[in-house]
Design a protein that fits this description.
InterPro entries: SprT-like_domain, SprT_Zn_ribbon, Uncharacterised_SprT-like. By secondary structure, the chain is of the alpha+beta class. It has helices spanning about 5-20, 50-55, 60-75, 85-95, and strands spanning about 25-30, 35-40, 45-50, 115-120, 125, 145-150.
């Protein structure tokens, strides 16, 4: 989808769901990272994240368009246009816009944990860094520690 097709889609969506024309500019903005779109209060233009369309498809993207158009039309009619406002929440529900966009961020990999075992009481000890087994001993029984290996899975350290 190019800029002209986006402009046409936003204008059609505005007329179909809100019954009001969209008279400003809608553009793709690749610099948007954590949000699906943005409404500019001063210029009344709309920015959209093209990754939403590429990653999640047209249905999710249409929800973002409806969301930004809610900000647009409510602001121009001097009603509550912020996320916290009752009017915004009500209009968003009426037109079927998305309240939140799905996350684009990649999940962080699990931290590597170094595993030791006490030679006396067999207690397993997880550390984020390697320790000197000649210097450090088991905290429960003061037994000698033996290096087991590195684990990449998340482990509940409290119990």
């Amino acid at each position: 989808m190019n800029q002209a097709e986006l402009q046409q889609l936003v204008q059609e969506t505005s007329l179909a769901y809100f019954g009001l024309p969209f008279k400003h500019q809608a553009v793709f903005n690749r610099r948007l990272r954590t949000t699906g779109g943005r409404y500019h209060l001063t210029s009344h233009n709309l920015d959209f994240n093209p990754l939403i369309l590429e990653t999640f498809g047209s249905e999710e993207f249409l929800g973002v368009i409806k969301h930004e158009l809610c900000h647009y039309h409510l602001h121009l009619t001097n009603q509550g246009f912020q996320h916290k406002d009752k009017e915004f929440k009500q209009l968003l529900k009426e037109v079927g816009g998305s309240r939140f966009v799905k996350s684009l961020s990649k999940s962080k990999p699990a931290k590597s944990l170094v595993l030791y075992q006490c030679q006396r009481c067999s207690q397993l000890i997880y550390r984020q860094r390697r320790v000197n087994t000649e210097k450090y001993v088991c905290g429960q029984c003061k037994g000698k520690l033996m290096y087991i290996g590195i684990r990449n899975e998340t482990v509940n350290l409290k119990g």
